[in-house]
Amino acid sequence: EIRLVESGGGLVQSGGSLRLFCAGSGLTFRDYAIGWFRQVPGKAREGVLCISSGDSSTHYVDSVKGRFTISSDDAKVTVYLQMNNLKPEDTAVYYCATTPLLCRYSDYGSSGSDFSNWGQGTQVNVSS
Fold first, then answer.
1. Cα distances (Å, whole numbers) of residue 7 to 54, 67, 101, 113, 124
2. Would you write out the chain's pLDDT as a tens digit for each of its 128 residues?
3. Which of 27, 114, 33 is nearest to 72 (CA)?
4. Which of 51, 82, 106, 114 is the most exposed place for a label (fewest CB within 10 A)?
5. What integer pLDDT is reported at residue 97 of this predicted model?
6. DSSP label at 113?
7. How many whole angstroms separate alpha carbon 30 and alpha carbon 50?
8. How many CB atoms lie within 10 A of CB 95?
């Protein structure tokens, strides 16, 4: 059974940084792409970043380019989301999930319907 667990969320001031973790079990990353998504209550889920070991690629939506970085440690089966220069609009619950597709062929930048094995999420709050 594939399981993903997110951690690392918290409260930070605008301009600050956080590092989120997505720890996996029951899978090897080379067989999947991992996406990070976020959701605010009452709003649709938003894709943020995606990483594919299969083609060694990373993908970002425009709103986080230059501020967020995704990386992975295949041996530890962990994906990291480094978030710098955080803004109040980054406040959300952040989730990671898997897809058997490469990021470039997935809908990581939108609803994430290609993704499954969602974790429970980790809350990020950015104060102004």
1. 25, 19, 24, 22, 10
2. 999 999 999 999 999 999 999 999 999 888 899 999 999 999 999 999 999 988 888 888 999 999 999 999 988 999 999 999 999 999 999 999 999 999 999 998 888 999 999 999 999 999 99
3. 33
4. 82
5. 97
6. T
7. 13
8. 23
Tokens (6 digits) for 34: 């991992």
Handedness of CA 75, 77, 60, 108 (dihedral sign): positive
Report CA-CA distances (Å) from 3 to 6, 15, 88, 124, 127. Answer: 10, 32, 30, 21, 31
Q: Which two tokens stand for residue 20?
A: 């989120």
Only one residue has tokens 């938003």, namely 46
Nearest to 86 by CA among 96, 78, 94, 75: 94
Query: Phi and psi dihedrals of 125, rounded to 5?
Result: -120, 125
User: Cα(5)–Cα(1) distance, rounded to whole angstroms?
Assistant: 13
